[in-house]
Design brief:
Layout: H1 2-10, E1 16-17, H2 19-29, H3 33-42, E2 46-47, H4 59-66, E3 69-73, H5 77-89, E4 93-97, H6 122-133, E5 138-142, H7 151-154, E6 160-163, H8 168-181, E7 185-191, E8 194-200, H9 206-210, H10 221-224, H11 229-247, E9 256-261, E10 266-271
Parallel strand pairs: 1-2, 3-4, 3-6, 4-5, 6-7
Antiparallel strand pairs: 7-8, 8-9, 9-10
């Protein structure tokens, strides 16, 4: 839309487009905030919210992120932080999948969990939060349990999948579905002071190796629980991995994983 572009170019401050001008443009031309943002990025106009990204992410790469879709499986401890960081990074479409509601024991660590959200669907809270953080992106809430039966449908159009589930069977099933669909998977798990993160590409058997000794019992998280800080650390590493996958930049944690020990403040790289 040439008129929209001319409007934006007339309001650029250096190479930055202020949020207020994005909102005015959307209203004036009857288009979505997403369309305004895409038009700006396509023409090397950087929305001002991303100005602290540009020393590491170019305007064209910011557009690449905006045109990408990430699926987050689980919207609890890990997932809440992952969703927040993806939205602030500027990933344009995020599919949030979780069947659960918030319970009181979530309040100690889950970013989306506040007293007024008790009993509320986690994906509903995620949609509300992300609309406040970055209204130009699309958050697709899916209140459902992910599985083999619905996996292909839920992950349609997705570029990267981020694992934020809380049990080993679901992780292994998720890895199987992603492998079948040819999708990269960023895996994360936490328990107490500890966690680990890895990136799995189709054809890899990373999770099978990590959980090869699992005997069908409950995971260690059920014994150690989780404090407020461990999910934030592991989720941030997962988002960094997802960003590298989407941008095709840097070296991912493929065929290796980071073992995180916050009690002794040790992070170890372990080859797989």
């Amino acid at each position: 839309m040439p008129e929209l572009l001319a409007f934006l170019q007339d309001r650029v401050h250096g190479d930055l487009l202020l949020w207020g001008d994005q909102a005015v443009a959307a209203d004036a031309f009857g288009v979505s905030l997403a369309e305004v943002e895409r038009t700006a990025l396509q023409n090397d106009i950087l929305p001002a919210r991303y100005q602290r990204n540009r020393q590491m992410i170019s305007c064209s790469q910011q557009l690449q992120l905006f045109d990408s879709c990430a699926a987050v499986i689980g919207c609890g401890g890990l997932g809440g932080y992952v969703l927040e960081e993806l939205a602030r990074l500027g990933v344009g479409r995020i599919v949030a999948i979780d069947p659960d509601v918030f319970e009181e024991h979530n309040l100690n660590r889950q970013l989306l969990s506040v007293v007024e959200n008790l009993g509320k669907a986690k994906v509903e809270a995620a949609a509300g939060r992300i609309s406040e953080v970055n209204p130009a992106i699309e958050l697709v809430p899916v209140r459902a349990a992910f599985g083999r039966e619905n996996g292909a449908e839920l992950l349609s159009g997705v570029d990267v999948v981020i694992d934020a589930v809380d049990n080993i069977p679901a992780r292994l099933e998720l890895a199987e579905v992603c492998g079948t669909l040819g999708l990269p998977l960023v895996h994360g798990a936490i328990a107490g002071w500890y966690g680990h993160v890895a990136t799995v590409y189709p054809g890899d058997d990373t999770l099978e190796k990590i959980y090869g000794r699992w005997n069908g019992g409950k995971g260690v998280e059920s014994q150690l629980g989780n404090p407020s800080f461990t999910p934030a650390v592991a989720a941030s590493l997962e988002v960094a991995e997802a960003a590298k996958v989407l941008l095709g930049q840097g070296h991912t944690l493929r065929n290796r994983f980071l073992s995180i020990n916050l009690l002794d403040m040790e992070i170890e790289e372990i080859p797989i």
